[in-house]
Fold this sequence. Notes:
about 1000 residues; alpha/beta
Amino acid sequence: MVDVPRVPEQRRPASGNTPEERTEGHPPEVRTSRFSVLGPVRAWHGSEQLNTGSPQQRALLAALLLRDGRTATASELIDALWGEEPPSQALAAVRTYASRLRKVLPPGVLVSEAGGYAVRVADGALDLAMAEDLWAAAEKARSVGDLCQARTLVNKALGLWEGEPLANVPGPYADTQRTRLDEWRLQLVETRLDMDLEQGCHAEAVSELTALTAAHPLRERLRELLMLALYRSGRQAEALAVYADTRRLLADELGVDPRPGLKELQQRILQADPALAEPAAPDQEPMPTAVRPAQLPATVPDFTGRASFVDELSDILSTAEGRVMAVSALAGIGGVGKTTLAVHVAHVARTHFPDGQLYVDLQGAGARAAEPETVLGAFLRALGTADSAIPDSLEERAALYRSVLDGRRILVLLDNARDAAQVRPLLPGMEGCAALVTSRVRMVDLAGAHLIDLDVMSPEEALLLFTRIVGEERVTSEREAALDVVAACGFLPLAIRIAASRLAARRTWTVSTLAAKLADERRRLDELQAGDLAVKATFELGYGQLEPAQARAFRLLGLADGPDLSLAAAAAVLDLPLEETEDLLESLVDTSLVESAAPGRYRYHDLVRLYARACAERDEQPPSERDAAMSRLLDFYLASAARVYAIERPGDRTVDHLEPTEHAGQDFTDDTKALDWLHSEAACILACVQQSLGPRTLRRAVDLLLASKDLAESGASSLRYESATCAARDAAAALGDAHAEGRARVTLAQVHNNAGRFEAAKLEAEQATALEQTLRDPWTGSNALNELGIVANCLNRPDTSEVYLLQAIDAFRADDNRPGEASALCNLSRVLVTLGRTSTAIDLVRQGVAIYDDLGLTFRLANARYALGIVLSHTGRHAEALDQLAEALRVFVENRQRLWEGTTHYRIAQVHLRAGRRAQAAQHAEQALTTGFIGGDWMRANVLTLLGKSLDSLGQLDRARACWREALAIHERAGAPETDEVRKLLSPVAAA
C-alpha cells in the first residue's frame, strides 16, 4: 500500500470557514502581502520584496508564519528561537525583533495580542498553505480516479519548494520544522513517482529515482519504486541488482533485512509476474485512461447495405475476447467498400470499447507500405506514451504496446494492410481488445482471424446507394437508366459514389445522360470483372469527366511517391501559381479522386495513385512532361531544403556546392518555420530522393540528402534517411557517376558515425576519398577527411585522427568553408586532449567557438560548446565545462536534435563523475539512456559503463555489475576497443 504524505502540523484558525471568508476578513495591506517558508523566509508587499532583517528576525517571522495566524506567547517564541538555553535578555530581544519586523511589514500584518504576537496572512499568501491545499486537492482527485489531475497538482505543490525550507534560519523550532518539511516533500515526491509509474512513465522515472536513491540510500520506498521502474523499462537484471544492493546496505548500516514489500517485489520480478507489467488495479472504481484515443475516420452518412456483415461483425466485436477480425476483398479489387464497412462497423461497436479506438492506413497496396515500428510509435503516442519512453526496436515497441493496452478495452482498425506479417505486431493480443483489418488479400495465415470476403453490392443495395446520393426524385423518374448506371459501375461502391456525386453536382444532367456517358465499352460491366482492370475502369468514371487542366493535375501529381503533397509542392509539379493549383486540387477533392489529408495537404488513395500513373503513361503528351514534372518537384525540395540549411548554418559553403535548380523553393520567415517545414516534409523529401535516382536527376537527389542532413541527426527520420542514402550510393555506383557516389558515400559515412558503426563509416569515407582524387570536389574531399578523423578517434587511434583532421582543416580553409573549419577544429581539440596536449586543445576549440559565434550559427555553436565542455572537463575545469554543456543542451532541445540532447546528458554525467558528484552523474546517464544518443549501440555501452561507475561509487554494486555486463555484451559483439576496459571493471568482483 502506498504511503500517504503527511501534511506538516498546521492548524487553521477557527474564524472563517472558507478561503473567501478568511481573505475578506483582512484589511487591504494583509491581502496584498505574501510570504514563503519553502526556501528562504521572505515577505512581499505586492510585487516588492521586503527586507526581513537578521537571521533571528527571520526565525521569529517563521515561527509566527508556521502558526497560521494563531498567537504565540513570548515564552513560546523564546523556546522557538533558543530552546533550553535562552540568553538573559531573551524577552527584550524578542520585542526588538518584533518591533523591527512591524516597521518593515505592512500595517496590520504583525499584531500584538494577549501578551504575544501573531502574523495575519491572507488565504493563499503563504507558500506552505498553498502546498497543503494543492495536496488536499490532489488526494481528492486521486480518490475519484483522476490520476492525471492528481499528478499535476502534486507537481504544482512540489514546484513551490525553492531549495531548503527555512534556509539559514537558526533555532531549534526551525530545525524541527525543516526536518518535517523535508520529510513531507520527500513523501510528495514518492507519491508523484508512484503516479508516474501508474501512468506508464517508468523510463522517465528511472533517472530521477536513481538520483534520489543515491541521496537517500536507506529509504526503501524509493528503492522499491526504482526496482519497479527498471523492471517495466525492460531492465530486469538491474532491478534485481537494486534489491541485492539494498539488502547488503541495510545489513551493513542497520543490521536489518529489507521490509516484506521489497522482498515480495524481488520474488515477483524473479517470477516475471505478469501483473508487474502494468499498475495494479486500484481499490476504487477503475480509473479512466489518461489518454483516450478516438481516431476513427468519420463514417459516411449515406452508408448503405451490407446489413449481414454489419450484424456479424458487430456481434463479434460486442463480445470481444482478444479476437482479431479481418475484412478483406477478393482478388484485391479496389473500391469494393472494405474501409467504408470497417469504419461503419467500428462506429457501431465503439460503445463496447470505452477506452478508445485506434486507426491507421497501412498503405499496403502502395510501393512503400507503412512499417510496423512506425505505426506502433504513433499508436503509443496516441495512447499517452511519451516519446522518450518509446523504444527503438519493433519487438520492444510491440511489447510496450501490449503492456499499455493491458486492462483496457480498445478497438484497433488496421486499414489497407499488405499482409499478415505487417499486421501481427499491431494486434492488441489482450482480452477485451479487438482489431478490424482490411486488406486486398485474404489473410489465411493470420491465426485466429475471422475472415470475410467482401464482394460487390447487390443490385438493390447499389441502386439504394445511388439514390441516396443523387436524390429520390431524379432516380424514381429514370429507374431503368439508374439501373444501367450502377450496372456499368460493376456494383462497386466507390464507382457508384463517384458517378452519383458527379450527377448530383450537375443539375442540368439527367440520369440517362450519365448512363449514356457510361455506355463506352471501357466502362462496361464485363471490363470490371478481373483484378486491377476493374479498379482502372472504376476510376475512369471520374477521370473521364475531368476538365483538361484537372486531368493533367490528376495525372502529374500522382507520379510523386511521397505519402502526400503540400500545396506548394503540388504547385511546383504543375508549374502553376499557388491559387490556381489550389483550385484544381479542391476540384479533384470534390470528385473523390484526391483526398484532403489536412489543410494545404493532399493525398491519393494508393490504388487511385496507380491509376493516375497509368493515365500519365497513356495520356501525358509529350511523354517527357512526366520527367519534367518530377524534376520540378525535386528542384522544389532541393531549393527549399537548401534554404533551411542556409538559415541553420550561415556561411557554410555546402549550399554553394549543390547542383543548381531551375525552380524556386519555399520561403521561410524564421528558423523555427524552416525546421518545421523540414521535419514535416521528411517522408516526402526522402521518397523524392529514392524516386530520383536516374542519370538526369541523381546528382540533385544526392544533394537533397546533403541539404536535409538534419533529418539524420534528429532521430525521428534516421532510418529512412539511411535507406535513401544507401539507395543513392548504389545508384551512383551503378551509373558510374563518381561525383554523386563520392558525396553519397560521405553522407553515408556520417550516418554510420551517428549510429556508432565506425568500421562501416571508415570504409565509406575511404572510398569517397579515393573517388575525390579524380573528381576534385571540395565538398567530398573536406568532409570525407573530417569523417575519417572522427572515426579514427572513436576507434582509439588519436595519432591517425590528428593527421586526417589537420588535412580536413586545410581542405575546409581552401574552400573558404569556415563552419567546416570550425567543426574540424573542435574535433581535433578532442583528439589532442587524449594525447595530453590540453592547452592546444582548448585554443583550438575556442577558435571553433569564435568562428561559429561570428557567423551567428546558433545550432552549430552548440556543437562547439559541447566540444569545449568535453575539453574543459579533461582539464579539471568542471564548473566551466558544465556551463558549456548546459548551454549546448538548451540549444539542442530547442532545435529538436533529440540524439544530440541525449549525448550531451552523457557528457554532463562524465563531468559530474569526475567532479565526485556521483548521484548527479547517475541521473544524467539515465537521462541519456531515456532520450537516445549519437553513436548507437556503441554509445549505449559507454553510457552503461559510466552509469555502472556512478552506481558503484554509490555502493550499488550489483546494479553496477548489471550495467557493465550489458555494456560488455554490446562491445564484444562489435569488437570495440572498449571491451577490455569493461572486462577489467567486472574482473575484481568476478574474482571475489
